[in-house]
């Protein structure tokens, strides 16, 4: 019985360690595709907090100190990709959409990017808060 409990604890701790995205993150900067090129955004003009639990993500964003957007849903991590599926939020075009972001962690920074049909759609950097 003791071996079973120990095995369970080891599995749980390795599963937690395997997900470096768990916790709270603050937006640092981003680059986004638009019809005629790209736009960029940086904190503090755009401020956002993203929360990652074991199974879900959510975020709320302000621009110029006023509410801009919010959303969230479920996610999985697979092959260095953060694959999110939007379930709720105030951007109708994202509802029900699944997006696979390539990601890497460098120190306390989370870099992620989304490419569709060979074109960069979005690239963001987030800083770990906890």
Here the CATH topology equals Lipocalin
Count all strands and give the number: 9
Please tell me what the overall shape is. globular
The top-level CATH class is: Mainly Beta
Low-pLDDT segments = 9-16
Q: Looking at this structure, what is the CATH superfamily?
A: Uncharacterised protein PF14869 family, DUF4488
The chain-level structural class is mainly beta
What is the CA-atom radius of gyration, in angstroms? 17 Å
Proportion of helical residues: 10-25%
What does this structure look like?
The chain has one helix at residues 2-17, and strands at residues 23-34, 37-42, 46-52, 56-63, 66-78, 81-89, 98-106, 109-116, 119-128. It has a single domain (21-128), classed as Lipocalin. It has an eight-stranded antiparallel beta barrel with strand order 1-3-4-5-6-7-8-9. The radius of gyration is 17 Å and the shape is globular. Strand 6 and strand 7 form a beta hairpin. With 130 residues, it is mostly beta strands. The longest helix is centred in the first third of the chain and has 16 residues, at 2-17. The chain is built from one helix and nine strands, in the order αβββββββββ. The termini are far apart.
